[in-house]
Amino acid sequence: MKRISIVTIFVLSLTLTLVAQQRGAGPAPAAPAASEPTPRLADGKPDLSGVWWTGGDVGGRGFNSSTRGRGAGGGTPPPNFTALYKPEAAAAAKKLADKDDPTLKCIPTAFGTLNVSMFDVGALAQIISTPKFVVMLTETFHGFRLVPTDGRPFRAEVPPSYRGDSVGHWEGDVFVVETKNFTDNTWIWAEGRSSPHSDQLRLVERYSRPNKNTLEIEATVYDPKVLTGPWTVPKQTLVLAPFDRILSLNCSGIETQALMDAAAKQTGK
What we know:
Layout: H1 6-23, E1 50-53, H2 87-94, H3 116-120, E2 125-129, E3 133-138, E4 144-148, E5 165-171, E6 174-180, E7 187-190, E8 193-196, E9 202-211, E10 214-222, E11 231-240, H4 257-267
Antiparallel strand pairs: 1-2, 1-11, 2-3, 3-4, 5-6, 6-9, 7-8, 9-10, 10-11
């Protein structure tokens, strides 16, 4: 598959057009000093609420690409997702092309809702913390997750879905989210590459807010049908945006028809 796929073009075109119209194309206001203390909920846990981004709208002033696909401390990054493919998975992936990209039909990526894969293509995300749930929202694909915070087990009666089923618990000041029960007809966005996965995909994410204006996300991807071992996602450090709500970047399929036609022409189908 190509290093830059149609999913990049699609998300960037939606983001740049709608965001420029609705949020303005000027520079993002400077964020407050990062040393401000972490806000906390009534129970003392960190309040993860806020709109989080890389410092600006994708393609615009203030956008910080340095947080994408790298560990916060620099150094040698871990192997990328496709480097861990089993031979049969690698062979199947080679047969896929841009025309097969599920996002062209407004099917979201499976890699969570508020996570590094979505930020890799410039999407913003919003968290709303409550005593019983952490609500995660993204601008693209009408995305959301409702993550219980009390350590309850997964729901046995829930059918597989595009973004799976999530449960969460606190480990000190770190909110740990486990997600599984995915369908296998979506892709994930891993280090600038669109990659298929199986229905055995499982994610473990760790969210921490060391101060008022910083959100840190670490994640590990497991897929025993596809990968030879766990994939460690490069740590992401995001900042609090200077506004308190995200926009709705709707996808109906009409916007992507030209992209689907172009992708089909690339393979002659």
